[in-house]
């Protein structure tokens, strides 16, 4: 089947069978491998995208259900060479190690700050509780978001 | 593969009638795990993204298509409490209470709330129209329900009395993204307390004998509450699996039962 | 002549320099192994045993091969070279050799035009098994002599006795490394009969050796390339899909890609050894350790992997960072039909640390000392003989300083509110404020750095100076830990040039850097890069009769005598080294000898809030002090410490592979629980810098110590909160209740 949706502001069409996850289609058909395939059961958040503004795991979205939707992936957050503030903070504060969770954390964090520009530490932790990281122990990531939160105060 | 995107409920039901093997897709949080890891390959899917009729929340009804993210803000206290424990923010943005009902997992976080209210499950088919099935008749086993092939779950029908005093608790070994080891809802009705539990039997389960004992006193004493917990522990029918043991689940069910009664009394 | 002005280059050693791969990682542009593609690429898939032990009765791959889009189906009869592989002992069949010995053992692989066809082809293979009784109990295996290695340590007087005797039995469960990036890779034929492999790994050269043997080709026909890694933690020290995709590419002449899904990843890599440990500590009434006797039993699973080295580590770190003159250990790692075990962060020292620190707490209580007082009293320091091997501890070992620094970190405030996010049970709302009991626990852990037991442990690196900057060439694996940044910092500091690129070399371009494991790359590849940079600097100075090399050229007596352009007038100049740490010895039959090259120590203090009635734990915080020699990049170091602690916390309270009759019951992220943002305690870390004898700038490896003593510290805190004896990690709710 043919599915057309808007991805990072650009109209894209996939000829997937239909049952596949949005994640698989992004990665394997549309050359957008930034969203990561760590668990494919919604338990790690590495594939997080915005779908019509909602924060979802792209591994749990059936591509057949995406006709006409608007999707933002990690590749769509920066404005040209201008990184999103979350991206800048994650690099500067050491929130990135292996980086496999990073795309999901960046998308989730951008969504958090859009809805709550000055989150508390508890709010940061709960908003990111669907994003597993195995390298950092989360400390530097929380630090990055606390710095961002402070800068928006 | 066929993927239908009906624009309303009638179209969705017509699509199902035309293809009884088709599966409905709501939030996808269960279905897609099957696709990704168990290699489930549906031949025909009916996506409910545009079916607005199942998204309503009213005094007497909660639409099946309401997401956990919306229920987190619901005025029914225990419903909001339990919604916050479902999966993660991403799961709550996509997953629906209707999907929870349809999957009928023993651990379904929303199911004890339905059971304690003696709520009904609203089902609609294009041929036979609407019916409301009492929860006890709907959940018939582990991931088994009495839904007919041509039916769609459209909502939860609430009774006239939905107590303001209602409390939820869920045990899991971590603090997010966790399947319950035991979960529990207690409500205080005009006629007394009721309790229902999850992950404690093949289906959500009420502890009727324990309720009767507790409600035999107008204001339960400490001893009665302790006895209530003991009776709940006996009345549940949990199993040992890779998530926990039968003994722990019985114990925890009793502890949660007592704690939730106390929380209701303090409310 | 130009006169020197600036005296230092920015972003050198000691600064918190940001990773060079940070921007591509936050924008989604960093290429991981699972992201790689090639023209005309096929997709591989693997058929696995559904039994822990079974005889393969029938295997008919022809229905799969007959399917449209299927290009190859391979099983054991298709392996042209060696039929088995293994890092230390080549005992694991590339494909099932007639008997499956663990659940998930590979039986056949398929290459097809797309992943869906590959998966369907796997389903089309006709296979019949005769299930056999699996050997899954490690004690039965030991009785039957089914062992990979046995070790004895006999040091001191067997008749020594202490007035105080503490006996205990301890267990640790199997832990999965659970790196977020799955096993993945691509094998690309070069058109001349050779192959280029880009596969998740920790050590390309040891992969290469095993791959060419199984392919039956000369060394130069296969090149293994470092690749973008989504974590490792030991899981990628052994072969996963490397040989399979190489065989498929060799057979089809086309690129072949394979990516494990999460459930396959759980069976597709080795895990931390589950352990059973029997301990007897004897001490004087003042707490002085007199004798430690122990029996250690590790379950290695079906194949050897690195079990033998893991056992040695467990045995040599039976006692921990404490002086003791009489030590007697019987250790064995057994062969069973459980999932194969191998490397995971801490490598044998994790299991024993849980046991010896549990023993030390009981000893402290018995003799009436505080936990830290007892540990200070017995502290092992540099210059002492190691309690097990008898070797003199070289370099630095600031055990007392680490303990004192930990003790100086302020305690957290008492639980002040009943916000669910601050309570055991979290948003599950299980626990009233009044039910919470707080506990504090301590642990100190000791670990070797780099490879031991006479292993020829080296790392090669080449440093190149060009007219526009410097390059580091290495085949070391950057798995996320930040080696790439350290290499840049070291070269910047030595050559005083800011523009440093790290070039990942394949196996044909440079010699081995050794494994990214054993906390070794900071010291080994860091040491090689440092030595290469220093060698290059000295050569340049000698060639130009200078006394100082700076970013713009060679200086003599403060004057520029040769610009960088002049230095590179005949092209880039380079220097190559093969760096070795001080030699180590095989232990003798009593486990004695100069077995290890270096040591590091760390201490942890855990504070927990427990709901004893439900057995739920919230880890409030874990503080630490760690011996690192020199902090080359403080921010990256803190990242290693916090991340390593979280893996220790995971093993303490939630991470366990539940294995029943050889079958993993929870091979998903739904049921194998990793700590989330809501489970992760804050960490305050104190860094102890006492330069070591052979690391660059005195640095020590820092990756493993955070994972070693954090687990026993958390369990000790739970004991303190509940009064329960708790002899097993992880601690499950039912263990706290005593059900």
Task: Enumerate the strands of the largest sheet of chain C in spatial order, edge to edge or round the barrel.
Answer: 3-7-1-14-11-12-13
**Total count of helical runs of at least 4 residues of chain C:** 18
Q: Count the E strands of chain C.
A: 31
H-E order of chain A: EEHEEEHHHH
Low-confidence stretches of chain C: 1-7
Number of strands of chain A: 5
Q: What is the distance, rounded to the nearest whole angstrom, between the alpha carbons of the first and last residues of chain A? A: 48 Å
Provide mean pLDDT of chain C, rounded: 97
Strand order of the largest sheet of chain A: 2-1-5-3-4
* Residue share in β-strands of chain A: 5-15%
Structural class of chain A: alpha+beta
Helix content of chain C: 10-25%
Low-confidence segments of chain A: none
Major sheet description of chain A: 5 strands, mixed
- Please, how many helices of chain A? 5
Query: What coarse outline of chain C follows from CA principal-axis ratios?
Result: globular
Q: Main attributes?
A:
heterotrimer, A: 153 residues, alpha+beta, five-stranded mixed beta sheet, 5 helices, 33% helix, globular, B: 267 residues, four-stranded antiparallel beta sheet, 13 strands, 36% helix
Commentary on this structure:
With 153 residues, chain A is α+β, with helices and mostly antiparallel strands. Chain A has five helices and five strands, in the order E-E-H-E-E-E-H-H-H-H. Chain A has helices spanning 22-29, 85-92, 102-115, 121-127, 139-151; strands spanning 3-7, 10-14, 48-51, 54-57, 70-72. In chain A, a hairpin with a 2-residue loop joins strand 1 (3-7) and strand 2. The longest helix of chain A has 14 residues, at 102-115. In chain B, a hairpin with a 2-residue loop joins strand 7 (139-141) and strand 8. In chain B, 57% of the residues are buried. Chain C is globular, with a radius of gyration of 26 Å. In chain C, helix 9 (349-367) runs parallel beside helix 17 (710-722). Chains in contact: A-B, A-C, B-C. At the A-C interface, helix 2, helix 3, helix 4 and helix 5 of A face helix 1 and helix 15 of C.
């Amino acid at each position: 089947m043919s599915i057309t949706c808007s991805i990072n502001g650009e109209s894209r069409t996939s000829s997937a069978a239909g049952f596949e996850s949005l994640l698989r289609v992004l990665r394997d058909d549309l050359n957008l491998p930034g969203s990561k395939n760590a668990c494919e059961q919604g338990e790690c958040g590495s594939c997080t995208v915005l779908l019509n503004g909602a924060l979802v795991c792209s591994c749990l979205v059936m591509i057949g259900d995406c006709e006409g939707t608007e999707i933002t992936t990690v590749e769509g957050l920066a404005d040209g060479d201008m990184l999103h503030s979350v991206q800048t903070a994650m690099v500067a504060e050491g929130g990135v190690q292996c980086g496999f969770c990073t795309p999901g954390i960046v998308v989730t964090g951008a969504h958090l700050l859009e809805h709550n520009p000055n989150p508390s530490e508890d709010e940061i932790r709960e908003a990111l509780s669907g994003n597993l990281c195995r390298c950092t122990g989360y400390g530097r990531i929380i630090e990055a978001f606390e710095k961002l939160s402070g800068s928006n105060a | 593969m066929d993927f239908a995107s009906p624009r309303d409920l009638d179209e969705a039901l017509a699509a199902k009638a035309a293809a009884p093997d088709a599966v409905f897709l709501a939030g996808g949080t269960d279905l897609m795990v099957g696709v990704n890891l168990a290699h489930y390959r549906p031949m025909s899917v009916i996506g409910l993204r545009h079916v607005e009729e199942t998204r309503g929340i009213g005094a007497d009804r909660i639409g099946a298509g309401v997401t956990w993210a919306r229920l987190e803000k619901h005025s029914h206290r225990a419903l909001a409490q339990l919604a916050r424990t479902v999966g993660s923010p991403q799961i709550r943005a996509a997953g629906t209470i209707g999907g929870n009902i349809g999957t009928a997992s023993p651990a379904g976080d929303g199911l004890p709330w339905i059971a304690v209210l003696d709520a009904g499950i609203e089902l609609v088919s294009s041929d036979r129209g609407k019916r409301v099935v009492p929860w006890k008749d709907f959940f018939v086993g582990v991931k088994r329900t009495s839904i007919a092939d041509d039916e769609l779950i459209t909502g939860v029908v609430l009774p006239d009395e939905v107590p303001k005093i209602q409390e939820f608790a869920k045990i899991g070994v971590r603090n997010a993204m966790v399947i319950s080891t035991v979960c529990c809802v207690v409500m205080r009705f005009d006629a007394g307390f009721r309790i229902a539990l999850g992950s404690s039997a093949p289906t959500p389960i009420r502890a009727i004998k324990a309720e009767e004992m507790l409600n035999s006193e107008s204001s339960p004493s400490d001893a009665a509450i302790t006895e209530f917990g003991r009776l709940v522990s006996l009345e549940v029918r949990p199993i040992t699996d890779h998530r926990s043991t039968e003994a722990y689940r019985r114990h925890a069910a009793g502890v949660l039962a007592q704690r939730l009664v106390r929380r209701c009394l303090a409310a | 002549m130009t006169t020197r002005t600036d005296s230092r280059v920015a972003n050198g050693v000691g600064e918190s320099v940001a990773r060079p791969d940070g921007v591509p990682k936050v924008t989604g542009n960093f290429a991981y192994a699972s992201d790689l593609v090639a023209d005309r690429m096929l997709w591989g898939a693997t058929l696995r045993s559904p039994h822990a032990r079974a005889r393969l009765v029938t295997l008919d791959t022809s229905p799969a091969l007959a399917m449209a889009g299927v290009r190859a189906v391979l099983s054991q009869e298709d392996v042209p070279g060696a039929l088995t592989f293994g890092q230390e002992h080549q005992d694991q069949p590339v494909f099932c050799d007639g008997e499956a010995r663990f659940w998930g053992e590979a039986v056949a692989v398929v290459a097809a035009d797309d992943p869906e066809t590959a998966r369907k082809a796997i389903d089309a293979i006709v296979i019949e098994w005769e299930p056999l009784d699996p050997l899954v109990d490690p004690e039965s295996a030991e009785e039957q002599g089914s062992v990979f290695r046995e070790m004895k340590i006999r040091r001191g007087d067997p008749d020594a006795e202490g007035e105080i005797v503490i006996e205990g039995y301890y267990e640790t469960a199997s832990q999965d490394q659970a790196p977020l990036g799955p096993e993945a890779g691509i094998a690309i034929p070069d058109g001349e009969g050779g192959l280029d492999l880009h596969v998740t790994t920790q050590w390309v050269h040891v992969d290469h050796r095993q791959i060419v043997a199984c392919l039956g080709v000369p060394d130069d026909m296969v090149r293994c390339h470092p690749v973008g890694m989504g974590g490792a933690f030991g899981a990628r020290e052994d072969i996963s899909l490397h040989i399979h995709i190489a065989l498929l590419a060799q057979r089809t002449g086309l690129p072949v890609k394979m990516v494990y899904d999460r459930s396959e990843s759980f069976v597709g890599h080795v895990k931390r050894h589950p352990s059973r440990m029997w301990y007897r500590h004897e001490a004087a009434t003042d707490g002085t350790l007199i004798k430690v006797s122990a029996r250690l039993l590790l379950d290695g699973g079906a194949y050897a992997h690195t079990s033998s080295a893991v056992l040695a580590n467990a045995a040599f770190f039976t006692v921990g960072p404490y002086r003791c003159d009489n030590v007697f250990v019987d250790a064995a790692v057994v062969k069973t039909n459980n999932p194969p075990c191998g490397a995971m962060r801490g490598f044998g020292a994790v299991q024993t640390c849980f046991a010896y620190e549990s023993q030390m707490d009981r000893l402290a209580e018995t003799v009436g000392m505080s936990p830290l007082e007892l540990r200070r009293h017995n502290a092992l320091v540099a210059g002492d003989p190691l309690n097990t091997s008898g070797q003199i501890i070289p370099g630095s070992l600031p055990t007392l300083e680490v303990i004192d620094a930990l003790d100086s970190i302020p305690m957290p405030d008492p639980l002040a509110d009943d916000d669910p996010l601050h309570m055991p049970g979290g948003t599950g709302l299980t626990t009233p404020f009044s039910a919470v009991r707080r506990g504090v626990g301590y642990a100190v852990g000791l670990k070797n750095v780099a490879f031991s037991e006479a292993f020829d442990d080296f790392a090669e690196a080449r440093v190149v100076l060009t007219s526009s900057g410097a390059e580091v060439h290495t085949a070391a694996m950057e798995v996320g830990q930040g080696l790439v940044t350290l290499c840049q910092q070291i070269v910047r500091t030595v050559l005083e040039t800011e523009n440093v690129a790290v070039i990942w070399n394949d196996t044909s371009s440079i010699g081995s850097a050794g494994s990214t494991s054993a906390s070794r790359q900071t010291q080994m590849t860091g040491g090689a890069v440092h030595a290469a940079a220093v060698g290059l600097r000295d050569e340049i100075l000698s060639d130009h009769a200078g006394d100082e090399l700076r970013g713009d050229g060679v200086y003599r007596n403060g004057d520029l005598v040769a610009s960088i352009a002049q230095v590179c007038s005949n092209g880039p100049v380079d220097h190559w080294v093969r760096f070795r740490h001080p030699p180590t010895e095989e232990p003798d039959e009593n486990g004695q000898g100069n077995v290890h090259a270096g040591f590091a120590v760390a201490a942890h203090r855990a504070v927990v809030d427990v709901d004893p009635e439900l057995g739920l734990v919230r880890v409030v915080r874990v503080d630490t002090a760690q011996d690192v020699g020199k902090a080359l990049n403080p921010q990256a170091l803190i990242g290693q410490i916090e991340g390593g602690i979280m893996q220790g916390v995971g093993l303490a309270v939630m991470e366990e592979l539940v294995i029943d009759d050889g079958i993993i019951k929870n091979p998903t992220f739904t049921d194998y629980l990793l700590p989330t943002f809501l489970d992760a305690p804050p960490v305050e870390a104190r860094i102890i810098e006492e330069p070591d004898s052979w690391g660059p700038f005195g640095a020590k490896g820092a990756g493993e110590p955070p994972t070693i003593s954090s687990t026993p510290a958390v369990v000790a805190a739970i004991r303190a909160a509940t009064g329960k004896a708790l002899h097993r990690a992880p601690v499950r709710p039912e263990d706290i209740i005593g059900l």
